[in-house]
Amino acid sequence: MPTLVPMNDAEAETPDNSPRVEPATIEDLPALTELVMDLLSRSEDFAPDQATQERGLRLILEQPNRGRIFVVRNKDKIFGMVNLLFTISTARGGFVILMEDVVIHPDHRGQGYGRMLVDHVIDFARQKNFKRITLLTDRMSAESQEFFKKQGFEYSNMIPMRRIID
């Protein structure tokens, strides 16, 4: 008889409760807001504000022609999320994606959920004939940069600049 070894949350999943990537719904808004607040709290460029983040997420969820939010979840909880914004590139001659807010809950990092999300985004982009996926990652986060390089993203010669409009 095999020895029973305690399992972590990911290993204890049953087939009908295994993590999967799917579109977020408006019912997911509180969990999504919490994830984005955590992400922005770790960046020097942003001052998290729950009402602001919730409003932005709601705009994406309510306007699917502008973007999508995907989550990795089981039947009980959301482990992570990514949001996609759609625009047109004259350089690529078609629709492109700006990928933002790729975030995995701190308790579930290093378990493959980020890769699940990014693989889903790449498949989605191919199926919908998007021409490019662009993302911004924190300059100070070597870990994030390495993760995205492993997913096939490359550095660009373009330098992001921005102006905040009050």
Low-confidence stretches: 1-14
How would you sum up the major sheet?
A: 5 strands, mixed
Which architecture does the CATH hierarchy give at level 2? 3-Layer(aba) Sandwich
Considering DSSP H and I runs of 4 or more, what fraction of the residues is helical?
25-40%
Characterize the structure shown:
The protein has one domain: 3-Layer(aba) Sandwich (Aminopeptidase), CATH 3.40.630.30. 30% of the residues lie in helices and 22% in strands. It has four helices and five strands. Strand 2 and strand 3 (78-89) form a beta hairpin. The longest helix is centred in the C-terminal third of the chain and has 15 residues, at 113-127. The protein is globular. The N and C termini lie far apart (67 Å). The relative contact order is 0.13.
List keywords for this structure.
166 residues, alpha+beta, single chain, 4 helices, disordered N terminus, globular, 22% strand, Aminopeptidase, 5-stranded mixed beta sheet
Brief write-up:
By secondary structure, the protein is an alpha+beta fold. Helices cover 30% and strands 22% of the residues. It is globular.
List the helices and strands and how they pair.
Layout: E1 20-23, H1 29-41, H2 50-62, E2 67-73, E3 78-89, E4 94-104, H3 113-127, E5 133-135, H4 142-150
